[in-house]
Amino acid sequence: MTQETDIERDDRDSFMRLLGGRGSAIDASLPPIAFGAGWFFGGESIVIGGAAAVVVGALIGGFRLSRGARPLAVLISLLAVMLGALIAIRTGDAADFFLPRLASNALSALAWMTSIAIRWPLLGVVVGVALGQGRKWRRDPDLVRGYSRASWVWVGQYVVRLVVFIPLWLAGATGPLTIAQVVLTWPLVAVCVAASWWVLRRSLPEDHPGMRHPREPAA
């Protein structure tokens, strides 16, 4: 096994570990499942569905806090669930529970596209911070290009959700929205992480030392 192969394997494992997000992705799918189940088995009661979602969200938040999660991140997740429940109760349309998620995906797609346009691809920002690199990766043109190309995969993730969610929301299809939320959470994230790693690695020159070793530009 060559040194280059070892570096590539280490980078891949680090990338998957940093961005896999399995726990958070699963957590994000549980309140919508609770809402859909509560709504369906509660005789299509939005109040019951909303209460079930908030309770599950609170339980997840408590569990994550006990495991050392950041309080702000936990609070934001719980507030998003509560907001969805309040909107649905206010409008009387159960499908509106998913409106905050639609808005979140639309804003995320816009943010990632903007970051690519200004040459601060968010994938590089996230990985750079996680690896303690600061802005070192920004001084490596190959990494900037690789992260930019790989960031388009993440844009695609959000666009796929919007393409599926928006017609279902317009149709008021609460059940299918619940199912779509599950399918397009952890499974889609897993595909996105794997695909973005492939794009990043293929975008770097063969002699590049990898994402953990940004190269300084030639003087």
UniProtKB/TrEMBL annotation:
The keyword Transmembrane helix applies. The chain crosses the membrane at residues 39-60, 72-89, 109-131, 152-172, 178-200. Keywords: Membrane, Transmembrane, Transmembrane helix. This is DUF3159 domain-containing protein. It holds the Pfam family DUF3159.
